[in-house]
Write a structure and sequence with these properties.
Helix content: 25-40%
Strand order of the largest sheet: 6-5-18-17-16-7
Strand content: 15-25%
Number of helices: 32
Largest sheet: 6 strands, mixed
Radius of gyration: 25 Å
Length: 769
């Protein structure tokens, strides 16, 4: 184990609390970013990687999917604090080799946190754990692939699952789904199932595409931007620059969130004089501290108010020409929104009538509105209805196909959107499958496969023999932690294609393989034709190349395309009809296949080599057309629904800390919220604490209730915090144990991470027992 890796794990007794910050970024963000880089990778590797991140000749940040400009000049420092942390984690010189696995048994590692495991460094060679073993031990690549082939060939395709993380590049994702379908299964769950699946489930039937309909430049030129259910200061910090530019162009911002996040309040751009020595830029013109799950009620109220304003001033609010030519269902929508119960709306949202009326006034005046959202809206039972209500508002004022207007689901992990474009989906559409059939000369499976939640059920029932994970940390990312971990242990073989240790490696199948792979920052040059590059798709459908330049920390690492190819060869042989070797040796071959299978990728190899890459077609944005089953955009009508906790309970949502991205912990400092050195905390309004009979810093056990059953997570510290009343927040994934696996969003089957009904009981230690 590298001497710089931490030896001590998290000590929750070290918890420190400070007042929450009222501004994001600033010089502190710069100093933290540099310190993390230097401590992990040293000065030379840090500087070299920072100069290349998100540049035309560099690599795409392995963090979020926020886009770079394709029309303007890019900054020499085209990254944020958390992007710098992600790069530091990947470019680290810490390594995990045979000595680490010999020193640490599975029993030892089971007690380690995600923070400790991920901090140990990059995995340097493939390792195996066989039945009866207490430790992982080295295995050759040849033997590892042979073992995978043996296990897959010993079972049936429907008992094999191929999970994917959003970090996976386009070319790898295409090969990976082709491998699974070549075997005969659509069991391709991915992290989209757990985050923005609700977005696709709402957008496809209403506007005919499951992606956002705006560009980065649209945000700059919008008259009004909503930022709903997201925390850009931590999760997409470069978004703050776009919002600042919008403000400078005269636009207004409405923030809607249960927590008063620093990034929604003020942005201190460390690359500007105002951000360094000035007061920064106030982001939110209006901040609505909404109750968790109250957004559907808010959007229905806004629709009602816009229609009422149109009655008072005909032709000033509703785009009747657009609605008449391009939409269906307006009459039913207008009838449903003609009446509003203000008492129930205020109860559902926690907002006053005056607050909602003020925001409706901004909407009525705006001729170009963008509504952005993230996981705060996608992880509740009524999420799909909530998002359809957003589309209703945008359709009402014709906010598609014009500058500064549209729908903007802000995707999380870099290339999570590209993976879906490449076919990582358990419910593939017939045109895509037919194109694969033509390209490769055999019939792909048509039966739908497992999504992430269905995979959990299958694991629990013992219906999975082989579970392969392309990146990610399924054990930590999924809901209902205890049941998920028990299910993973029933699998005959688990295979993890990873860069660093994580929890999923510890809650392994009967046989387990960990296969170390190159990361975004690493050079990929072990090919007959020399260095190779990959491509990604950002949150606004721009396809561009990514190519690392750092020397890998180990000579034993393989690229993801090579790993997929060798798994396929070991399982299917070389006479199956797919030339896996050719794709592994020259990624242009993969892109040629993609160009003939997926619309929008014609002449892929030439277009991806241009300076800014290329933008995929988007009918609502490009031509104001909608490829739904009726050929028009669709208004929808949903009943009012919101989350209410019974007496003595609160509605709990999970959130990330500032030192975290998905299941990766960069450190233990949630700087903007004033929480550091501990993670098992619950943020609760001080009036709720008093009403429930607790006080700040009480140690409690948390009990969630769903469908007559309970889930329990012990030893959390209550923190008085200015969240919306009736609500609480805890960190993901520590609170995942409280999410029953059947608590999901209807239609999308996304886990209800923002919908838990919880109560607290004093932990025994607090009572002195």
């Amino acid at each position: 184990m590298n001497r710089h890796a931490p030896e001590q794990d998290i000590n929750e007794d070290d918890l420190q609390i400070h007042p929450p910050k009222k501004a994001a970024a600033g010089l502190k963000a710069v100093t933290v970013a540099l310190e993390r880089g230097y401590s992990q990778a040293g000065v030379a590797r840090t500087v070299r990687s920072m100069l290349r991140v998100n540049q035309h000749d560099g690599f795409d940040c392995p963090g979020c999917a926020w886009p770079e400009s394709i029309t303007g000049r890019r900054s020499p420092a085209e990254f944020c604090e958390n992007g710098a942390k992600a790069i530091a984690e990947e470019s680290t010189t810490r390594t995990v080799g045979a000595d680490f696995w010999a020193e640490h048994s599975i029993a030892d590692l089971e007690d380690k946190t995600e923070y400790w495991l991920g901090s140990q460094g990059r995995i340097s060679e493939p390792v195996v754990l066989k039945p009866g073993d207490t430790h992982y031990s080295p295995i050759s690549w040849t033997d590892a692939f042979a073992l995978i082939g043996q296990h897959i060939n010993a079972t049936t395709p429907d008992r094999c699952v191929f999970y994917t993380s959003g970090r996976t590049a386009n070319e790898t994702a295409f090969m990976y789904q082709l491998f699974a379908r070549s075997l005969g299964t659509n069991n391709l769950p991915d992290c989209s199932n757990m985050c923005h699946e609700s977005s696709g489930s709402a957008l496809n039937p209403t506007i005919g595409i499951g992606k956002g309909t705006v560009s980065l430049e649209d945000i700059h030129h919008a008259e009004l931007v909503f930022v709903v259910g997201q925390n850009p200061g931590t999760n997409h910090p470069r978004m703050l620059s776009a919002l600042r530019d919008c403000k400078n162009n005269g636009g207004k911002i409405v923030a809607v969130n249960p927590l008063p996040e620093a990034g929604l309040l003020n942005f201190k751009d460390p690359q500007s004089l105002n951000g360094v020595i000035g007061g920064g830029t106030t982001i939110a013109d209006e901040f609505l501290k909404i109750k968790v799950g109250g957004d559907l009620a808010l959007f229905q109220a806004l629709g009602h108010l816009l229609l009422e304003e149109e009655k008072r001033n005909p032709g000033t609010v509703v785009d009747k020409s657009f609605i008449g030519k391009q939409t269906e269902g307006f009459e039913a929508y207008a009838k449903a929104r003609s009446q509003l119960d203000w008492e129930e709306t205020e109860r559902a949202t926690g907002l006053s009538r005056e607050e909602i009326v003020t925001v409706a006034g901004l909407m009525a005046k705006s001729k170009a509105t963008i509504i952005c959202w993230a996981l705060g809206l996608t992880q509740q039972p009524h999420s799909v209805d909530t998002l359809k209500e957003i589309i209703n508002l945008l359709l009402l004022q014709g906010n598609f196909g014009k500058r500064g207007a549209g729908a903007c689901p802000v995707r999380g992990h870099s290339n999570v959107q590209g993976d879906r474009t490449m076919g990582i989906w358990e419910k593939p559409r017939e045109p895509f499958l037919a194109a694969l059939d033509r390209e490769f000369g055999f019939r792909m499976p048509r039966d739908h496969g497992y999504d992430s939640v269905e995979t959990q059920h299958a694991l629990e029932k013992g219906d999975v023999d082989v579970f392969v994970s392309m990146g990610g940390n399924f054990a930590a990312a999924g809901s209902d932690t205890a049941a998920l971990e028990a299910g993973l242990k029933t699998a005959g073989l688990t295979v993890h294609i990873s860069t660093k240790p994580n929890r999923a490696h510890v809650v392994h199948g009967k046989t387990s393989l960990i296969l170390p792979t190159l990361g975004r920052t690493d050079t990929d040059d072990k090919h007959p034709k020399g260095k190779q590059f990959l491509s990604v798709e950002d949150s606004m459908s721009v396809i561009h190349k990514t190519q690392g330049r750092l020397a890998p920390t180990s000579e034993h690492l393989l690229s993801e395309p090579v790993i997929v190819a060798r798994m396929a060869q070991a399982t299917l042989g070389d006479d199956h009809g797919v030339d896996w070797r050719a794709m592994a040796e020259d990624y242009d071959v993969i892109r040629d296949h993609i160009s003939r299978v997926i619309p929008g990728f014609e002449d892929f190899n030439a277009r991806v080599r241009t300076k800014n890459g290329f933008v995929l077609p988007n009918p609502p944005r490009d031509t104001r057309t909608f490829a739904t089953d009726i050929g028009k955009a669709r208004f929808s009508v949903s009943p009012l629904e919101y989350l209410e906790a019974p007496e003595g309970h609160l509605i709990l949502q999970t959130v990330r800390s500032h030192d975290q991205y998905n299941t990766t912990f960069y450190g233990l400092d949630d700087r903007y919220r004033g929480v550091s050195d501990a993670r098992r905390v619950i943020l609760v309004h001080e009036e709720d604490l008093a009403g429930l009979g607790f006080k700040d810093r009480d140690l409690v056990d948390v009990i969630s209730t769903f469908a007559g059953t309970e889930r329990r997570a012990n030893k959390f510290r209550l923190i008085a915090y200015p969240t919306a009343k009736g609500c609480a927040a805890a960190y993901f994934p520590e609170a995942n144990a409280l999410v029953h696996r059947e608590l999901v969003a209807r239609e999308s089957n996304t886990p209800g991470y923002k919908a838990m009904t919880v109560r607290f009981v004093k932990h025994p230690e607090e009572n002195g027992s």
